[in-house]
Amino acid sequence: MKLLTKELYADLCKSQSQTPDPICKAHWFNPVGRGHWFGIKMTDENEVIVFGYVSLFGDWNDELGDFSLAELESLQLPYGMKIERDQHWTPKLLSEVKKEYTNA
After folding, report:
1. C-beta separation of 72 from 28 below 8 A
2. What average pLDDT does this structure show over 49-75?
3. Is the CB of residue 66 less than 8 Å from the CB of residue 43?
4. Are 69 and 48 in contact (CB under 8 A)?
5. Helices marked H in 32-93
6. What is the widest separation between alpha-carbon atoms in the chain?
7. Rounded distance, CA 104 to CA 57, Å?
8. How many Å apart are CA 53 and CA 25, to the nearest integer?
9. What pLDDT shows up at residue 103?
10. Is there a contact between 84 and 73 (Cβ–Cβ < 8 Å)?
């Protein structure tokens, strides 16, 4: 499965600057364990670096920051699995994502 479609790429390139509660437009996840990445905007279109919310443990370590889709794609998970894109994701406000994916 492709982690990034042309449509999603174009959507992530749209600016959400100066938005206090931006929209998480994409969701990638670890199908065999913990790990969720939520894309808010593209920060480097050439290297496909995304700015978003990363929830690896569902606790105080969760944070906003940049992550590389190429690195996510290269992760080797158990049973031959790979990081997947949530094909049924409905964009949500960051505040909603934090409530849903944080154990705090």
Report:
1. yes
2. 90
3. yes
4. yes
5. 69-74
6. 42
7. 11
8. 11
9. 63
10. no
